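Help! Submission page says 'invalid entity' but I think these are all valid:
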Amino acid sequence: MTIVVGYVPNRHGEAALDAGLAEARLRGGDVVVVNATRGDALVDRRHLGDAAAAELEARLAGLDVPTSVRRVLGADVAEEVVRVADEVGAALVVIGLRHRSAVGKVLMGSVAQRVLLEARCPVLAVKAG
Amino acid sequence: MDNLQLLLDGFQSAATPTNLLYAALGVLIGTFVGVLPGIGPAMALALLLPLTYGLESTQSLIMFAGIYYGGMYGGSTTSILLNTPGESASVMTAIEGNKMAKRGRAAQALATAAIGSFVAGTIGTVLVALFAPEIADQAVRIGAPSYFAIMLLSLVLVTAVLGASRLRGFIGLFIGLTIGLVGLDLSTGQARLTGGITQLVDGVDIVVVAVGLFAIGESLWIAAHLRRQPLDVIPVGRPFMGREDWGRSWRPWLRGTAIGFPFGALPAGGAETPTFLSYVTEKRLARDRDEFGQGAIEGVAGPEAANNASAAGMFVPLLALGLPVTATASILLAAMKTYGIQPGPSLLEDQADLVWTLLASLLIGNTLLLVINLPLAPLWARLLQVPRPQLYAGILFFASLGAYAVDQNPFDIALLLVFGAVGFAVRRFGIPMLPLILGVIIGPLMEVKMREALDISDGHLSGLFDEGLAIGVYVLVVLAVVVPVVVDRVRSPRTPHDQPGATTEREVPR
């Protein structure tokens, strides 16, 4: 049983990761951490850089849950997360949610909403504490 | 000291509140565009040229000066924070600057780059004010044959000596010369290379060529390589320097200026050589040589100063001889022409006010740059997070607007796309941009001088050689072509020419 976590290097991503790990312990499964970027800007603060990825892998390696980290480059972040979930036959997708202002909702498309609607398995949406 | 008096007069006409506002605007826009890698000062100027059409010549030159220095400063910011030099002249800055930033000294690296640029730019501009009139005095006496020879020399130097591949250099040069030939023959009135298209009879406007090659070419290139792994940007606060940093920086600034200025003033302008020389010098003179390669502040201070001093030096041939030696200078020349200003040795006589105002505005732009931009560094760094599609949509908009604004002629937009395709091909095949753009702008100037010389001699080729100076310059031309070839032959070919630590994957426009 595999759980896919949509991860970004901030508190929302961490909250999702914690929830995913807890769920994996309960169900006795493994966790696939996905960090996706559109790669169309020089700098993407939600992208997991090489150093940060190594750090995350080291941190996860010490846990009692089998984990793997995947970094994907694709046109649509939500689509990439769903694609990985399909590929590994995920039982659950965990994502972080954040509050957006009315203006923010107009300006930016929500990755979380797309994952919720398009994933073929249950999705657990977590809010950062 | 007459020249300094004239420079002060220039300040008087440049330093009105409105003009200062334009200078500030120019600095901001220039930095905005310059921060983006792949967009150097030349492209920034070409893109923003149409913005100044509504202004009077003084104000637009002031804005240009701001855009120019802003563009250069923006390039160094990206080099330091991302290790992606936006132009070939910032390669050296990127080496040490990025290492400094990784060690948590980004603020100091940015500060030494900015203040060094200021110092070098100021000294360089004053030197231009001192030298350009003297050289122009001499230049008035130079005849057409020597002029022709000097232009030939500068083209050959840029093509055969700078850059990695002579063959690619010459391909670029001949593409440029061909573009420059389009239009009416000056003496016979025949249409050349127009292919029967009447709109081409007037020739192609340099702005359309430059915007197409730089802006459209770059946009197409970016579109073809849209998705890349994002880079790690180094967070930065407000740039500042400690006491020790000042102590270690000021000598490299001055040495860099001394190295950079003469190179810029030579007819083969280019900032790669002086920045490299400055880096090597600082490395040799450094007390702690091992620190080089790990973020030595001298390695940022020297090359940045050399870069800006050579950028100022390029005004000497531009103002004294009407000869552009860098891509940026070509655009400035084109801008002057749109105001009906004929560059050449008599420019300093005919348009004295304008020239001194330009030099004064360079100094003002330089100062404003320091005052405005140093506190804004974190903001510029955030610009790197804007997704490319949005960014280049804006650039394409300005490019089309600019090309259309030249003549309000839709045909120019079609031409723009053609040159955009050429610009893309040139990037794809690694053909250097500098010989190409210089070919476009120097080619027609050369033709005028050649025709003049031949008219005097009644069409005899000897007319091209009947001045002592011309013969001397031709000897240099031959040497410039032959010596590198001979040296290559004598030395067994080892590793191909590569720049240490260069991370640019292609020639970038300057």
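Support: the input was valid. A stray whitespace character was the problem, and the output above is from the cleaned input. Chain A has one domain: 2-127.
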